[in-house]
User: What shape does this take?
Amino acid sequence: MQDLRAFSHEDTDKMELIKIEEVIDGVLSIAHNELKYKADVEKSYGDTPLIIGNAQRLGQVFINLLINAAQAIDQRGIVEIKTYVEDKYVCVDIKDTGKGIKEEHLKKIFDPFFTTKPVGQGTGLGLSVSYEIVKKHRGEIKAQSIEGQGATITVILPIPHED
Assistant: This one.
């Protein structure tokens, strides 16, 4: 309940030092009901530094990614969450064992209103909103997939410079 309250707390665009794994853990408890019937969640957290960000906005990104991962899995599968540092960036991989994304769709998944879900089951806004949030954090979001073998979405966020 505390995680839900923190997530829904009056939204500001205030940026502060945050630990990305804490944001993810808070989101996992909110998304638990969506995930528990579809996937086992495996976490592999690296030793990442603090980043400058808005925990609520980034939480929204990870909720979207985790729910999409769960919805991509037909029976029961695995959702892996991995955090690590690459160059001057904190990276988060959300990988699922779902049906994957068709190659022709990969280029469009971050476009507003693009969805492969049946009418009434998706707005096509989750990934485009996530893309915009990550962009506002001076980051990047990428997708890799082989149809039938799941997908990996990577969120890349800059590590602040030490002045």
